[in-house]
Design a protein that fits this description.
Elements: H1 15-38, H2 43-67, H3 73-85, H4 88-103, H5 110-117, H6 125-135, H7 141-154, H8 157-169, H9 176-183, H10 188-218, H11 223-238, H12 244-264, H13 269-281, H14 285-292, H15 302-315, H16 318-327, H17 329-332, H18 340-350, H19 354-361
Length: 362
């Protein structure tokens, strides 16, 4: 968002006019009160008439300013307070005008404040990509998410604002805890910025959703577009910013999109992988195993076998799980190359766990 996208601030002109009208309204309201107390009988009717005339005059004056597109904040305050507070209304309005005139000299303008939350970037795309690569953010966003969360816990307000601005600009699901920490921060400025960043992320997701949905409706037979929509909904549900009901609703739509794509292109391994992964996340282990099983022999990415192995484990098909490393030794043969979380598991099922040899020797 640029400064051209922001609405112009209301012109502060007409302060002297507001003060003059406030003084006149205060004088007439005070006269009406004095008249009512001086002549309790007939004076009450005159005081009421004077009060009504004063309010009517303020209404006409505010309407005239509205037609001229002048500032209506203080006149509106005068219009709201005078009918119910009498002479106290103009007095409070005049005090507000005085405080506004004093404090606005030192206040930060709305444009400057908003743009300070998310400063405009003038970096060229190539330079931005270079910065992402050298900083490691493209391949280490999970570690960055943990670092951001640490800053949100112990950092200064300026550091927290810098983290939120960076998270909003390069959002990943791993950054969600940092945003949630900002929403619960004790500093109001950090909370406001985190709420703005969250709204910005959700707005970008929804805009992309509408674009892809329009493209699917324009060409319902295009599998690539439908697959892109399903993957976007999958990512949206996984971002961690939605409530449980909304997340389940969007994941159901992503599942439906994946299924339709796979029906039209059953040989597309990417679609089959995405569908199997999401089915397993949703708890449909049996269907996930059936979807992922054709990929076991031709998979080139070991992560596909990880998802398939998890589905086998959930279904209790331990014999097939034990045979999986021997079936695909090119991807699962070397236990030392596996992630730490899966190394011992596959070592156990393949019989290569060192502690098993010790137990057998004993």
């Amino acid at each position: 968002m640029t400064s051209n996208d922001l609405p112009d601030e209301v012109s502060p002109g007409g302060t002297l006019e507001t003060v003059a009208v406030g003084l006149i309204a205060g004088a007439t309201e005070a006269a009406a009160v004095m008249l009512a107390y001086a002549w309790p009988g007939h004076g009450a009717a005159g005081a009421t008439a004077l009060h009504v005339l004063t309010v009517a005059g303020i209404v006409l004056w505010v309407r005239r300013r509205a037609r001229r597109d002048l500032d209506l904040r203080m006149p509106g305050l005068l219009l709201v307070t005078t009918p119910v507070l009498g002479p106290v209304g103009p007095a409070c309005t005049l005090a507000t005008v005085l405080m506004h005139a004093l404090f606005r000299r030192y206040a930060t303008g709305f444009h400057e404040w908003y743009l300070s939350l998310f400063p405009e970037s003038e970096v060229e795309p190539a330079q931005e990509l270079y910065e992402l690569i050298v900083s490691g953010r493209e391949v280490a966003h999970l570690a960055a998410g943990e670092s951001f969360t640490d800053v949100m816990s112990v950092g200064s307000p300026q550091q927290k604002q810098a983290v939120i601005a960076l998270v909003a600009r390069h959002f990943r699901p791993a950054f969600t805890p940092a945003l949630k920490a900002g929403l619960a921060d004790a500093d109001p400025s950090v909370r406001v910025q985190a709420a703005t960043a969250t709204a910005r992320v959700e707005h970008e997701f929804n805009e992309r959703w509408l674009e892809l949905e329009a493209a699917v409706q324009a060409n319902p037979d295009a599998v690539a577009t439908r697959h892109a929509l399903a993957r976007h909904l999958d990512d949206y549900a996984f971002c961690g910013l939605l409530d449980s009901n909304r997340e389940a609703e969007i994941r159901d739509k992503a599942l439906d999109g994946y299924r339709r794509c796979l029906e039209r292109t059953p040989d597309d391994d990417d679609i089959r992988h995405d569908l199997g992964r999401l089915l397993l996340r949703c708890g449909h282990a049996r269907e996930a195993a059936g979807v992922l099983e054709p990929l076991v022999d031709r998979a080139k990415d070991r992560r596909i076998l990880y998802w398939y192995a998890e589905s086998l484990f959930r279904l209790g098909r331990y014999a097939e799980l034990r045979a999986l490393p021997q079936h695909r030794p090119d991807l699962l043969g070397r236990v030392d190359e596996l992630p730490d979380a899966l190394r011992d598991v596959f070592a156990l099922w393949s019989g290569d766990a060192p502690w098993l040899d010790k137990r057998e020797a004993a």
